[in-house]
């Protein structure tokens, strides 16, 4: 059962969002996330916003990654920097259903 966290940001600095997401990808995957992906909405209510999706193999792994991020100085600096170029607009967690 995969756990996927979706985080949306508004930003008028796409190059900075891409640079920041690349750095975040390395940090998240180092701590155990299966992946971090960046997308941008082109239609609908969130058109123009960015979506970061991170995936974890289980709740246990999700918890371990969150705990590690909370102690990671590089992530704290990156998160603080993100707040200077983007606005967090939403966060959701989805639980995969094995079919």
From TrEMBL:
Cited SUPFAM superfamilies: Dimeric alpha+beta barrel
Official protein name in the record: NIPSNAP protein
Source organism of the structure: Bradyrhizobium shewense
